[in-house]
Design brief:
This protein has 181 residues and is α+β, with helices and mostly antiparallel strands. Helices cover 14% and strands 35% of the residues. It is built from three helices and twelve strands. The chain has helices at residues 18-29, 64-73, 84-87, and strands spanning 4-9, 37-41, 53-57, 76-80, 99-106, 111-117, 121-126, 129-133, 136-138, 149-156, 159-162, 166-167. The strands form three sheets. Strands 3, 4, 7, 8, 10, 11 and 12 form a seven-stranded antiparallel β-sheet that branches. A three-stranded antiparallel β-sheet has the order 5-6-9, with no helix packed on it. The longest helix is centred in the first third of the chain and has 12 residues, at 18-29. The two termini are 19 Å apart.
Length: 181
């Protein structure tokens, strides 16, 4: 009954390991047919914590129904101006986040391509490790390091934008089962 989990919270202090936990949860549940989406929240109890994180929701219209659908289907990005593990201890983003224009999944060639603007680097993560960089990810070329999912994170001077995981089911998910963490 879990839709997802918070992976960014306010200024990324007490919650800085949440992305590590998220990757560990994904490693355990994806081979079992489940996915947990990654959410971001300012948790704004004070003014200085407003605007530190954001979610970019992909919706055909501005309505509660469209929002709920995006949240349930994982059609959104989790963003943060502060990501201590990924961007460095003292980094605090300024300016706009990277803008994702298109994501293309070519199932015939096993390639995922991200078209984005205003970015410095795109990293591809599987099982909590960066396994490739660049706007194109070839699942076949990275199969040795590929777990049951892959996700990307885009970095720029504004901060970090994280995708939801892409399930990588080659018909052998049983081989990717791990013990409960």
């Amino acid at each position: 009954s879990c839709v997802g989990m918070e992976i960014f919270n306010e200024k990324d202090t007490a919650a800085r390991a949440d992305r590590i936990v998220w990757d560990n949860v994904l490693m355990y549940i994806v081979p079992r047919g489940k996915v947990a989406w990654g959410f971001s929240s300012d948790d704004s109890h004070t003014i200085d914590k407003i605007g530190v994180t954001a979610e970019i929701m992909l919706m055909p219209e501005l309505s509660q129904e469209a929002l709920r659908t995006a949240m349930e289907n994982g059609t959104f990005f989790a963003c943060s101006r502060i990501a201590r593990n990924e961007m460095g201890e003292d980094f605090e983003g300024t300016g706009e986040y990277a803008k994702i224009e298109r994501i293309t999944v070519d199932e015939e060639q096993d390639i995922i391509t991200v078209t984005a603007n205003n970015y410095e680097t795109i990293e591809w993560i599987s099982d909590g490790e960066v396994i490739a960089t660049g706007n194109t990810f070839n699942l076949r070329e990275n199969s040795e390091n590929l777990g049951s999912y892959v996700r990307f994170q885009i970095k720029n001077k504004g901060g970090i934008v994280m995708s939801q995981p892409f399930v990588c089911d080659d018909g052998n998910m049983e081989a990717k089962l791990i013990e409960e963490p």
